[in-house]
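Reply to dn_fold:

You asked what the input looked like. This is it:
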Amino acid sequence: MSKQLTRVKGVAVAAMLGLLAAGGVAQAQEMKPVKGGTLTIGVETDLQGLDALKAHVLGITANMVATTLMERLMELDDEGKMRPVLATDVSVSDDGLTWTYTLREGVKFHDGSDFSAEDAAFYFNRLLEPKNRFFGRLFLSPMKNVTVEGQHKIAFHLKHPWAAMEVFGAAYSFTTFIGQTSSIKADTQNRSPGGTGPFIFKEWRPGDRIVVERNPNYWDKDKINLDQVVFRIMPDQQTRMASLQSGEVDMIWTDRGASVLEAQKDKNLTVHTRVGTGALIALLNNAKPPLDNVEARRALSHAWDQAAYVKFSLRGVVPVVEHPLGPDSKCKIDNYRKSSAKLAKEHVAKAGGPFKVEMIHTATQRGREAGEIYQQLAKKAGIEMVLKPVDQVQLRQLTFTNNYNITGWRIADTAVQSQLFALLYSKSPYNLSKYNNPEMDKLLGAMMQAPNLAEYDLRACEVVKLMHEDAMILIQGGRQHYAIARPNVHNIPPLWQGTIDARYAWVGK
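and this is what came back:
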């Protein structure tokens, strides 16, 4: 007998539950939505594209755009429970190796073609095909393939039971957004994306804006209120905030503490927030001197002061954390490397004496502040740190091509355990720090084969402990997401993975 999957369970529920600001969804539901109009959202960065094989990484801006254009099999509702989207039902075989999804009928892609099981299987098998070298394939390593079981039914076949499959439908990544088959086959999906979503791609002016328009043939079109969503690319946070206050944009994404604190005091603005899983991190390159020496990495870990960074740069608007597993994880860390110039100097000596490193960071206020704080902290430990500001595209290129000593990065607010596997497994193409430890590989394997979510969390805790021991990743801060809106913006759901989900929003007069 199969069991029905109706909601996210256990740790996953608690880790994903969000906090809504006053004036959010609950208030909007008491008001009659206004149909039509445009919602303009100020975002920080441009995107690489929306084809998983070409863009590699789905950043926050890309996630916002993708959410309007493409859909998942299942997703999280406002309370963190699973709700159907392109799938209407899920059943699991007794051995846990086959997950069968019944797909919604009557759904069409933006090009007018029917969405079917063939399309869904094609999308996922393309990601799973080794020769395609999808960077996120290691996130899906327990999956063998996806088969068509009927016109509107597919089955995921696993190599072993995988606890994370329960939350697979909610993983906010390229692995779950289903792109338009014709666009993928024509190799246009990356820059001119299509899907089954409530909005259709209209325009992309690189470095300026991305525009999507209402899909008149959407299968659930009565829920859509806006005619258009415009994503304005505005790298400077002060510019975004000023544009929001002047009415040039209706809503902005931010992670800058000063703007959040300012907005919380402004009666003309609404702050949306949610505590998440994951972490702001720095990657320490194990493949290049001097950080191929574990003692040098340990020295840098003790030199770093997460609490000071959160307090002075982020203004306390994100939590200080010892692991990325989320506030509801049962993980207790006993070997987190706390800030200590004395201990840092001891490890410098063990590394052979003072050394010099280069840190690349984004040429944003956030990146500059992180670099400058770390540079001063390293100096106290006798470590010379050279800073190299680059744009977002350059940072990704340098990181993926292993041309760095230290780089800023993020563990996204979703499927954290799978991300740890991809970041730390020795043979993973996403092992960006080039870390290699057979003991870690063994721990990661045990984690991925955990029989349930509680055990999954426990095994992940052991992974994090060894991560701290070998110091290839250091934590810069926890994840708390923010968006600031004008008071006439309504029906914004929880910021899952920091994403402003504009699908069902509406703008009042």
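Residues 117 and 150 are 7 Å apart (CA to CA).
Hope that clears it up.
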